[in-house]
């Protein structure tokens, strides 16, 4: 008999895509798709079970279907269908606790894959240039999705200690982008004018949603392969982009603001529901974050199809043109830089202003 894979968070586009993809794996016999709400997209031949992972009923689902592989994708930073931040946090943290409790009691579960985030490292002024999987954050996230991911990973480590017979894989994804990306950062880049922190041009990494699906598939591979696909892994496309380069490639002008003013503006747009301009996102837009992906390549054996720049280019194409033509905007910035250099000044960091 083939594997029985349970996937959480299938009402989201990414979860739905993974469910459709994993069904094509010859090792998979059945896929049980779980979410509290009915998906608006099709799930192929998967069996959908409407269940809230925050409730103890998830244990019955595992038992009834003799699930051996659990892929936990219901850890997210944005509400589905206009839900509240409280609901998101409860699903992230309490839902993970309930799911892990159910897995702990289930003798059939042999593999657990958890979708996490590089948000666990936070963003601080004294951060290292590059985070590895073992680098402790300089400042633990104090709230929002970043704090959720820290708590989720803590519960997962506790589960791994209690069930050493289960292969556990935690995937820390960089900012996920692509044509169907649904995240706070994607909402930020959708703004007609991008507010930035005056004096800062952070380095950013992205991972394409296609690569996310493939890495999840590899991580959920047969546990008989041993510890090959177990552990914690940073997942990101090659290279980095400066925030100013992102703005230029989108054709969107930027408005540099002092941090207090940007914090106030973030509160205003969050209240209006335009985008989730949370404190953690402000820190990312100030200090940035870059992670090493050596373990992804050497242990998981995965090389992303898309680099950070290619991921952003695909995302930008899906969003249509900005207020300013990217080529004209880039040319203007380069001419200004050249003039300053000729005049004896230092060429500025690439900017979209």
Overview of this protein structure:
It is a single chain. This protein is 40% helix and 17% strand. It has a 7-stranded parallel sheet, with helices on both faces. Strands 7-10 form a two-stranded parallel ribbon. A two-stranded parallel ribbon has the order 8-13. Helix 1 (13-22) packs across helix 6, helix 2 (57-65) packs across helix 3 and helix 3 (85-105) runs parallel beside helix 4 (144-162). The chain has 353 residues and is of the alpha/beta class. Residues 340-353 have low confidence and may be disordered. The relative contact order is 0.13.
Features:
single chain; 353 residues; alpha/beta; 7-stranded parallel beta sheet; two-stranded parallel sheet; 12 helices; globular; disordered C terminus
Count of runs of 4 or more consecutive helical residues: 12
Structure class: alpha/beta
Give the helix proportion (percent range). 25-40%
Strand adjacency order, main sheet:
3-2-1-4-5-6-11
Rg over alpha carbons = 21 Å
Task: Count all strands and give the number.
Answer: 13
Short description:
The chain is α/β, with parallel strands linked by helices and 353 residues long. Helices cover 40% and strands 17% of the residues. It has a seven-stranded parallel β-sheet, sandwiched between helices.
Write the layout of secondary structure elements.
Elements: E1 3-8, H1 13-22, E2 28-35, E3 47-50, H2 57-65, E4 69-72, H3 85-105, E5 111-117, H4 144-162, E6 167-173, E7 175-177, H5 184-189, E8 194-197, E9 203-204, E10 206-208, H6 209-219, E11 231-235, E12 241-242, H7 243-250, E13 254-257, H8 259-272, H9 279-287, H10 294-298, H11 308-319, H12 326-342
Parallel strand pairs: 1-2, 1-4, 2-3, 4-5, 5-6, 6-11, 7-10, 8-13
Antiparallel strand pairs: 9-12
Helix pairs in contact: 1-6, 2-3, 3-4
């Amino acid at each position: 008999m083939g594997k029985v894979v349970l996937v959480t968070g299938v009402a989201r586009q990414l979860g739905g895509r993974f469910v459709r993809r994993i069904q094509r794996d010859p090792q998979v016999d059945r896929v049980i798709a779980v979410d509290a709400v009915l998906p608006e997209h099709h799930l192929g031949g998967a069996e959908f079970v409407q269940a809230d992972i925050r409730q103890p009923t998830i244990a019955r689902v595992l038992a009834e279907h003799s699930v051996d592989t659990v892929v936990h994708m219901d850890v997210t930073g944005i509400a589905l269908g206009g839900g509240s931040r409280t609901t998101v946090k409860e699903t992230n943290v309490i839902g993970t606790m309930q799911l892990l409790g159910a897995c702990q009691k289930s003798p059939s579960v042999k593999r657990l894959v958890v979708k996490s985030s590089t948000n666990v490292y936070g963003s601080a002024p004294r951060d290292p240039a590059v985070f590895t999987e073992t680098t402790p954050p300089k400042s633990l996230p104090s709230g929002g999705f970043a704090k959720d991911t820290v708590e989720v990973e803590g519960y997962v480590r506790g589960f791994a200690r209690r069930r050493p017979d289960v292969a556990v894989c935690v995937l820390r994804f960089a900012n996920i982008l692509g044509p169907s990306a649904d995240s706070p950062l994607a909402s930020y880049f959708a703004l007609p004018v991008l507010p930035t922190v005056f004096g800062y041009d952070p380095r950013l990494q992205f991972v394409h949603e296609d690569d996310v699906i493939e890495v999840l598939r590899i991580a959920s591979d047969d546990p008989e392969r041993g510890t090959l696909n177990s552990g914690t892994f940073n997942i990101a496309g090659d290279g980095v982009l400066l925030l100013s380069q992102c703005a230029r490639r989108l054709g969107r002008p930027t408005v540099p603001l002092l941090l207090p003013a940007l914090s106030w503006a973030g509160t205003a747009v969050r209240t209006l529901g335009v985008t989730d301009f949370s404190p953690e996102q402000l820190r990312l837009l100030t200090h940035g974050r870059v992670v090493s992906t050596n373990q992804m390549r050497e242990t998981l054996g995965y090389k992303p199809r898309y680099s950070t720049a290619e991921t952003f280019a695909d995302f930008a194409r899906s969003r249509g043109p900005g207020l300013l033509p990217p080529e004209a905007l880039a040319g203007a910035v380069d001419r200004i830089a050249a003039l300053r250099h000729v005049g004896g000044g230092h060429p500025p960091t690439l900017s979209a202003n």
